[in-house]
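Annex B.
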Amino acid sequence: MRTNSRRRIIAAVAATCALTLGATACGSPDPGADSAAKDVASALEAGGKVTVWAWEPTLKKVAADFEKKYPKVDIELVNAGTNNKQYTALQNAIAAGSGAPDVAQVEYYAVGQFAIGKSLEELSPYGASAHDQAFTTGPWSGVKYGKGIYALPMDSGPMALFYNKKVFDRHGIAVPTTWDEYVEAARALHKADPKLYITNDTGDAGATTSLIWQAGGRPYKVDGTEIGIDFGDTGTAQYTGTWQKLIDERLLAPVTSWSDEWYKGLSDGSIATLSVGAWMPANFVTGAPAASGDWRVAPLPQWTKGAKAGAENGGSSLAVPKASKNKALAYAFIEYATTGAGATARVSEGAFPATRADLESQAFLDTPFPYFGGQQANRILADAARDVGAGWSYLPYQVYANSVFNDTVGKAYVSSTTLPQGLEAWRATSAKYGRDQGFTVAE
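Sugar ABC transporter substrate-binding protein: predicted structure tokens.
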């Protein structure tokens, strides 16, 4: 899932897209599926096997429920690895012309890269466009590329502040409501105990772009094959100005997320907050069980006092690869898994919904979280979902861009390079790659 696998998927997707860019608008809907919506009902009646590549555990219940409702259908769940590991396997299967699944879990930032490579089925003809009001803003925009819909949202990652109440109370520090207060809290914690850090960060593309998103920055502009990349906006400047202070004053734990050291920091309180997506609670329960009762959830700090601005951080969709042998039945499954009873079942298993109906459900809002001291955390997370800023775009080759983040922006964490300088290097590298693949990238 590291450098080698990233290079393989980057090369495979780029090669596919390079072939299509010269012939047509890469990522445009497939006009040859006009009767696809009619095929869905007949596919369910006929039955068959649907192979699903996904790492999301709540799909186990969805698959069982779907098979019970449609006895002629067999859903085979395969964990081909998380994110890049699965993407590499998927692209290799597509390139080989065999072995591709009927359904694949694809994170929002990666949808565009597969769409431009014409690796995903455009789902509007099957009825996907009828769900345009069913999902919250961030996830719905994440499954669209150009005029097409290439997946259906499976979950959501609106950002919130997870903080260790026990640590904050012990040192008399108030929960920050602005990013300026966050910096002050970081200083106070580290002064009280040099082993305490407000959070960890060694350079993370997803966290950086999400906080720029929340600050109002919109660095990526995508219109077909024409792309703009600009980190010179006010929102980006707000982010870099604040985060540079944390780096310069050594207020960030030099710990990589998802490592054993990271989980230890969450458990003992030496990492005191996380600004991440709403999918995080289950990871606390399984990864830092010793800290149960210590943590709480609060709204994400704001760049402007009194504002209510949010952003997405992570989240996945379900897509139908072009190579699927049973596209109509595959679509029927992903529609079931992401809407109605299927979505509600996943929420009951611990997933955070992308559907407005589930977000507004009283049962969902009233759910107590023992890990967070009985707090009804979904109320805060649901508000965060409604506050996600509109108009965000990822690059159609964001998988590649993220893979070179630590070679550019990451230098700001280990050298005299500043965050603005690192972002400019990231922009230049991403722009060059886009041009090399046939995109028109504005200066």
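Residues 1-33 have pLDDT under 50 and may be disordered. Residues 3-21 form the longest helix (19 residues). Further annotation is deferred to the next reporting cycle.
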